[in-house]
Amino acid sequence: MSRDDQTRFSTLVLPHLADCYALARWLTGNGTDAEDVVQEACLRAFRAVDGYGGGNARAWILTIVRNTAYTWLRNNRPAELVMVDDLELAANDSAAATPGGGGSSEATPEASLIAKADAGRLKEAIAALPAEFRETLVLREVHGLDYREIAAVTGKPVGTVMSRLARARRRLISELGTKDS
Amino acid sequence: MTDARLNNSVFLIHAYLDGELSTAEALAIEQRMAEEPALAAERDRLETLHRVLHERLPKQAAPPDLRRRIERSVGIHAVNSRPSWRALAASVAVVAVLASGTTWAVLQPHRGGDVADAVVSGHVRALMAPQSSDVLSSDRHTVKPWFNGRIPQAPRVVDLSSEDFKLIGGRIDVVERVPVPSLLYQRRQHLISVTAIPKRTAGSSPARGMVDGYNIVAWNDDDVSYWATSDLNVKELQEFAAAFRAAP
């Protein structure tokens, strides 16, 4: 390993370590696993740093963390990695992101009810989201990435990012608007 | 209104609140929301959700020894018994050493000029430091006077909050051994450093470029070169530059 690679790693990756850890924590659900994922992701990033071709360094390292987290989950906790089938969802799409749409039982609570949610309920509601909804929501609301950046990190078209984000938020609104859950 | 049209409008409300719409699209959806109570109610719910997520979700800091373990795993430090604050300081030093002209030029002959390297180094140090600014304030009347007495000329400090660029503070960077002021702005979670350099120091015309994954937009106004550095995409960074230049 060259000194040059170490320098590039220090410049490209280390400033974003808190971001990496936060994403890994949301994806794996706990701090210990998140540390393992971030360490593994950093090793991958270090091996790839020589071939890094420019672009947003933060999105680049978050992509590596995200992919490492899914590999880790597949190997260690495959049962928890239930992905929602996008095709199946697309069939119901006209209703899924719409308040009270499609005759579903989803509530359309008042904004004031949502405003009462505390940190514990927010965390629970986010943790309960399907993995691809959760990652999209977290990349937007926690990391502040824009749609194109989220599309790059998750490898999905911008349209998919939009619909996942809308459905993730709708589920949160529905969940947080239910009293006494 | 049909379900399909309602659904399409709901997607547009998300994109509107996320700042992803053009001005014309934003005006159109604003008008729809004004006319249709169901859309306005959805906007209120989404805005509230966004606010509680930002205000109440705990910020997750990485465990203090994670950085040290990672640095060791890639061979950055041979010594492994240092307390973490020293590991942090040492890793900053690696970057700082390279910011000094000659070493950098030898190692990175193919990349941008010394000034670009120096402003990016200043920005990276700000990202890595426990505190991103020497003076932390969103009030330009606090930030500007802070520079007085520290450097020969306090920089122009503008309020861009109406353009969704929030002032968070300022610091002093060193470019080619000259102390220069840098202001720190924020859009979403992206930090933007704008470094103001007397033109004779910069010696370069306005341009945009990229160093180590950070976008740079540089321009000259009056007798000062401004260098804006961020991991924000180049389009929004150019918006920032335009807003900064247009501000009174």
In short:
The complex is a heterodimer of chains A (181) and B (248). Chain A is mainly α. Chain A has helices at 3-12, 17-28, 31-48, 57-76, 86-91, 93-96, 111-114, 119-127, 131-141, 147-154, 158-176.
Structure overview:
- The complex is a heterodimer of chains A (181) and B (248).
- Chain A folds into two domains: 3-80, RNA polymerase sigma factor, region 2, helix turn helix motif (Rna Polymerase Sigma Factor, Chain: A); 86-176, Winged helix-like DNA-binding domain superfamily/Winged helix DNA-binding domain (Arc Repressor Mutant, subunit A).
- Chain A is 67% helix and 0% strand.
- Chain A has helices at 3-12, 17-28, 31-48, 57-76, 86-91, 93-96, 111-114, 119-127, 131-141, 147-154, 158-176.
- In chain A, helix 9 packs across helix 11 and helix 10 crosses helix 11 (158-176).
- Mean pLDDT of chain A is 83; it is low at 101-106.
- Chain B folds into three domains: 3-56, no CATH class; 62-99, no CATH class; 111-246, MucB/RseB, C-terminal domain (Phosphorylase Kinase, domain 1, 2-Layer Sandwich), CATH 3.30.200.
- Chain B is built from ten helices and seven strands.
- Chain B has a seven-stranded antiparallel beta sheet, with helices on both faces.
- In chain B, helix 1 (3-17) crosses helix 2 (23-35) and helix 1 (3-17) packs parallel to helix 3 (37-56).
- The model of chain B is unreliable at 78-112 and 201-205 (pLDDT under 50).
- Chains A and B meet through helix 1, helix 2, helix 3, helix 4 and helix 6 of A and helix 1, helix 3, helix 4, helix 5 and helix 7 of B.
**Any idea of the CATH topology of the largest domain in chain A?**
Arc Repressor Mutant, subunit A
Q: What is the chain-wise order of helices and strands of chain A?
A: HHHHHHHHHHH
Strand content of chain B: 15-25%
State the helix count of chain B. 10
The residue-averaged pLDDT of chain A reads: 83
Series of H and E elements of chain B = HHHHHHHEHEEEHEEEH
Helix content of chain A: 55-70%
Strand order of the largest sheet of chain B: 1-2-3-4-7-6-5
Apparent shape of chain A: elongated
Greatest contact between two chains: A-B, 71 and 62 residues
- Alpha-carbon Rg of chain B, integer: 22 Å
Q: Give the N-terminus to C-terminus distance of chain B in angstroms.
A: 45 Å
- Classified by CATH, the class of the largest domain in chain B is Alpha Beta
- Helix amount of chain B, in percent? 40-55%
Low-confidence stretches of chain A: 101-106
Count of domain modules of chain B: 3
CATH-assigned homologous superfamily of the largest domain in chain B: MucB/RseB, C-terminal domain
